[in-house]
Amino acid sequence: MADQSEQQQSKKDENNNEIEPAEKKSRRRFIIIAVVILLVLIAGLFYWHSTYSEDTDDAQVDGDLYQVSSRITGQVIKVYVEDNQKVEAGAPIADIDPKDYQVALEQAQATLASSQAAYLQADVNVPITNVSSRTDISTSGSAVLSAQAAIAQAQKQAQAASARVDQAKANAVKSRLDVERYTPLVQKDVISKQQYDAAVATDAGNTAAVLDAQATLLAQQAAVSQADEKLAQARSTASQSRSNGPQLVRVQQALANSQLARVKEAQAQVDQATLNLSYAHITAPVTGIVSKKNVVVGANLSIGQDLLTIVPLTNLWVTANFKETQLDKMKSGQNVTIKVDALGGRKFSGKVTQIGGATGSKLSLFPPENATGNYVKVVQRIPVRIDFTNLQQEDGDYALRPGFSVTPEVAVK
């Protein structure tokens, strides 16, 4: 029985020894397969990552730092902000004493009112001058016609006076002949003394009539000359009216235009004074954090003097310096996942906007000169701009700051 038991035990030990190597082989095979699968997955992940995406740890958040400066001179009378204070766009920062600029504005407004009144007067005179010149032209034309009619009338009257002179001379000649015939007859008492005296009186009257007719003729001839002078004067006046009338209108129009230019100049001075007055109240151009504040109450500011810097919280982007070997498949519009180190690896979404025009070393203050015998090829880096696509929703707590280190991953396929 003991021998049989030993034989059975020996058979069991042999069976166990046969089972143990099989289990060990199976376990070893499983481990090998698992390691191979893991290596394949790692290789596949590396291949996928290197083929379908590109990343770099040489990247940071960028933003426009706004230097708030004074646009006018003056003394600060109030400051509203402190360092590291968050301000909204349009929030007050400081006030400059506005009294001088208020006075300048009132003076400019007074000058504008005076210029507008002068322009109104000059502009009203334009149609008045136009009507007046037309009236002068019409009146001078009528004067010419009247002078011409007066000459014609004077000439007719002179002709009538000349005819009366001829008639008076004829009567005088007849009466003189009558006296000459009556003289011997009265001496011989053929005719009465009374008839002779009547003939002598008639002759004297006719002689006087000749003189009167000649004087009237001279007067009528003088009237003709005077009418000629008036016609010449009327024609000269009419010519001047036709020539000077439009010129006077243009002169008045030019004066109105000059006054209008002065109105515009005065309006520009009012606008400038209004702007200067508004510059006395300095406000934040964007929403951000106040930094480098160096303005205090009582300080006398000059134009362009820096007051503080505002670090923006919304208008941000990422500048990533990728190696030149990573840019083969990179282009604008590709989606980017941005991991921020300072926020515990918090991720943001973005897209490639621009690929830089030159390498960082080429844009440095002292670019490298490779025309030497000991040249060593170095992989260069190109700055790539990445814009956030949904910053307001992903950064609702305004946690991002310019200068944060990030790791962007660009999906190149």
UniProtKB/TrEMBL annotation:
Pfam families, alphabetized: Beta-barrel_YknX, BSH_RND, HH_MFP_RND
Residue ranges the record marks as coiled coil: 144-171
Residue ranges constituting the YknX-like beta-barrel domain according to the UniProt record: 318-407
Record field: transmembrane: 30-48
Membrane topology listed for this record: Single-pass membrane protein
Official protein name in the record: Membrane fusion protein (Multidrug efflux system)
Main subcellular location: membrane
Coiled coil in keyword set: yes
GO cellular component, one term: membrane
